[in-house]
Write a structure and sequence with these properties.
single chain; mainly beta; Immunoglobulin-like; three-stranded antiparallel β-sheet; 1 helix
Length: 173
């Protein structure tokens, strides 16, 4: 190989190395604003829709599991107060292909007024080198209720958790 070929090869290698920025392989969890609750004033018999609103999308995440927990406190005539806690849904997605805001829909039983609180957990598996969340701030606005914060992150995976405020449920009349 002559000197000219070696020089061209060295220049090509330098350009390749210079174009590989570390950020090309950094993975980040999304940052969240909180929850959007629809309808704004739910009644027994309505379908409650709770959306975990992302402020900034995650990057280089190949898998996400969304786990929802619902706590429903209600009063039944002659039976007293009851608290129902259960996990209505777990959703698994390939995040980089489906990074939409996670949504839980729940049909509120007819005739049972009370209040509902929704818990949310998101577990992420990175396809790059995990850097955690974009920041540790808690963002809120009048359009969202509750909080979702990063809890843990390594170079392989990360986690966010949050909770809505108590949502009053009006009884059917």
């Amino acid at each position: 190989m002559n000197t000219r070929h070696l020089l061209l090869l060295a220049c090509g290698l330098m350009l390749f190395v210079a174009s590989c920025d570390e950020s090309d392989t950094d993975s980040y969890m999304p940052s969240y604003e909180g929850f959007r609750i629809e309808p704004a004033n739910p009644r027994a018999g309505d379908t409650l829709r709770v959306t975990a609103v992302q402020r900034q999308r995650g990057k280089l995440i190949y898998h996400a599991d969304y786990m929802w927990t619902l706590t429903y406190e209600y009063h039944r005539e002659g039976k007293g107060d009851t608290t129902l806690v259960y996990q209505p849904a777990t959703q698994a997605v390939v995040y980089d292909m489906a990074s939409d805001d996670p949504v839980l829909s729940y049909a509120i039983p007819s005739g049972l007024g009370g209040r509902i609180q929704v818990g949310f957990r998101a577990d992420f598996r990175y396809s790059g080198v995990g850097k955690g969340g974009y920041d540790g701030e808690n963002y809120s606005s009048s359009a969202v209720a509750g909080y979702i914060l990063p809890k843990a992150s390594s170079s392989y995976d990360g986690c966010c958790e949050g909770m809505t405020r108590w949502i009053p449920i009006a009884a059917n009349e």
